[in-house]
Amino acid sequence: MAAADHRILSTGYNGAPSGAPGCLTSGACPRAFSDVPPGAPYDSGAGTCIAVHAEANALAYARPAMILGATMYITTWPCDDCRKEMWRLGVDRAIWPGETANSMVTTLLT
Ligand SMILES: [Zn+2]
Ligand SMILES: [Zn+2]
Question: Domain residues for 65?
């Protein structure tokens, strides 16, 4: 995540909370062993996942006052929960790779 002045604020990755078994540890994550389609809700039913999303981790480790106007660089479109948290905390936009080479997708969150 980069601040409005383009300095790096924080980074994050997708994973279980520190010290907890990971998603691929046998039985640790219901979603990892289910057949829910990509994009299915992460917080309910068979698609429930124990991981904290990269966006949420990046937000958690940034100084709150610096987030206003930030840009989040992510690997794919944000889920609804992360999109809501980015918007709530003042992230201006999110950018991720597009479907064709050298293309990017940008969404404004404000
Ligand atoms: Zn998981
Ligand atoms: Zn998410």
Answer: 1-15+52-110
Quick one: residue 68, left, alpha or beta (phi over 0 = left, psi -120 to 50 = alpha)? beta
Distance (angstroms) between ligand 2 centre and the Cα of 104 equals 18
Q: Quick one: 42 and 59 in the same domain?
A: no
CA of 51 to the centre of ligand 2 (A): 10
Express as a percent the part of the chain with pLDDT over 90: 67
- pLDDT one-digit tens code per residue, 8-50: 999 999 998 888 999 988 888 999 889 999 878 888 888 999 9
Based on the fold, state whether residues 30 and 78 are members of the same structural domain: no
| Claim to verify: residue 7 and residue 27 sit in the same structural domain | no
**Is 85 found in the same domain as 60?**
yes
CA of 50 to the centre of ligand 1 (A): 5
Cβ-contact 71, 110 below 8 angstroms: no
99 among known catalytic residues: no
The ligand that comes nearest to the alpha carbon of residue 49 is: 1
Judge if 24 and 10 occupy the same domain: no
Q: Report the side by side order of strands in the sheet with 93-97.
A: 71-73, 93-97, 104-108
